[in-house]
Amino acid sequence: MKEIIPPDGGQHHLKNYESVFGTFRFEDVHADFSWHTTGKVNMAYELIDRHTTGPRKNKTALLYADDHRRESYTFEDLRKLSNRFGHLLQRLGVSKGDRVFFFMPRSPEVYIGMLGAFKIGAVVGPLFEAFMEGAVTDRLADAEAAVLVTTAALKERVPRGKLPNLRHLIIVDEQPEYAAGEVNFKQAMAESEEELELAWGSLEDPMILHYTSGSTGKPKGVLHVQGAMIQHYITGKWVLDLQEDDIYWCTADPGWVTGTSYGIFAPWLNGATNLVRGGRFSADGWYRTLQDYGVTVWYSAPTAFRMLMSAGDELTAKYSFGRLRHVLSVGEPLNPEVIRWGLKVYGKRIHDTWWMTETGAHMIVNLPCMDIRPGSMGKPFPGIEAAIVDNQGNVLPPNSLGNLAVKTGWPSMMRQIWNNPAKYDEYFSVPGWYISGDSAYMDEDGYFWFQGRVDDVINTSGERVGPFEVESKLVEHPAVAEAGVIGKPDPLRGEIIKAFIALREGYAPSDELLDHIRLFVKTGLSAHAAPREFEVLEKLPKTRSGKIMRRVLKAKELGLPTGDLSTIED
Ligand code: 6R9
Description:
The protein folds into 2 domains: 17-441, 3-Layer(aba) Sandwich (Rossmann fold); 459-558, ANL, C-terminal domain (GMP Synthetase, Chain A, domain 3, 2-Layer Sandwich), CATH 3.30.300.30. The longest helix is centred in the N-terminal third of the chain and has 17 residues, at 75-91. It has a 9-stranded mixed beta sheet. A 5-stranded parallel beta sheet has the order 4-3-5-6-7, with helices on both faces. It is globular and about 70 Å long. The chain is of the alpha/beta class. Helix 7 (229-238) packs across helix 8 (257-269). A hairpin with a 2-residue loop joins strand 22 (458-460) and strand 23 (463-465). This is acetate--CoA ligase. Keywords: Acetylation, ATP-binding, Ligase, Nucleotide-binding. Pfam families: AMP-binding, AMP-binding_C. Residues 469-547 form the AMP-binding enzyme C-terminal domain.
């Protein structure tokens, strides 16, 4: 019997999946946007300005908190400030289609800046503040960025001599002197106009360029268009289930697509109050944020949930999450153990969502009105047609492992890999389908189960084993905080399973413990899925968005080059 967790029976926007699946079309929500009547499209207008002509004008749009700042902005505040920033960019000669990049820590200025850039039709490029010089240079050069919004400290990693297209640096914090081409943000904002003529365009105009790394080669610039907002909006309504009085917190940095699609677009298209917490992860700090701000909808990632889980239940017990209504996850497979823990400590189901930088918005989801099957990513969002296909594009029957694919043509689908049409075409090698590069199966009830990246699936003694299954079993063991599993070439078995694990506090590595863990997987999962080798690490290599980098584990193990490491955590 499969484990099933039924919905909680709350008042959700979408009450019944079957009532819309197969009949809902994205066109059905066009009438909710102003461009439906005006014919003129501007993302920032839909995010902010539109709300200021009605009762949301003085509603809080942005709550910002870090160790030094606590601020709050209404929709009207953001309208005026982003007008000023748009005007500032105009005065620098930035015009429609120019790329404006952001390389700085989270702060209200990032959000104001991006909105301002959208207002004049510029294409926004977000970067993680942790990028080093090489990573920053590659991306700015590839995008031929015209302007970079950054800080006095971070600009040291921007070699302007190598970036001939980069005309201006806007420095958001103050510095003693400004070199040619450098702009004092505070001063320039003060000199800008509060009212601005918006640049209007069409749904196919470019909007945002997100760089994402593949396992090999240079990072890819994934381009999304304005029309993606249709999907951000309706997934924000149905999946995030945003209601008028919600305090919504998405923990992702805007350098990661989750931090823009669901940290900016989905909440504000729905007129929600959006909380941003700057600074680093700390279990204490996060719990205080959840409690003190009375967060009602919380979107985070498995890596964060696992960190909170290993921080211990005593910590959780110190806080109350009484207002928390809806919890969601993205980025990596959500281990069933984490879902069970979430039910125990928050009294809430954690709703997994599957999507990618390239898909721009949710593809496979657990809606609040659906049963959750722990370990499954859920079902396709209404209007999305997903399937498991073989390499020729034949749709496979339920329970067969294959390529997770989506029928092309959803609103937030990427429109280009910047400067690399050949790379773009690789995703569409099978006519009519977008091939995700993930391997999964669908059960007889239409739930999708993630197995790994296609390249990560292990073949041991003729059996295909998804690393996720093994990792999920491993983290059920009380000593294991995190696990990354790879296939290691073996003359006898094709591959053997090797597990890299980080231990929870209070546990020390010993042969006895590892034997115990191996047995735990063997009896709990299957003999062939039990790792033959273990290695205990202080922590696992991860991307900035918290994904375990199995290819790095594998390359290290085999003594091969590790490929592009620009997105790795410290
Ligand atoms: C939004 C985002 C995409 C890749 C994707 C898959 C993995 C994301 C997942 C998941 C299992 C989930 N992934 N969500 N795997 N279950 N719910 O993460 O975009 O950074 O481009 O990564 O992340 O492998 O293909 P991105």
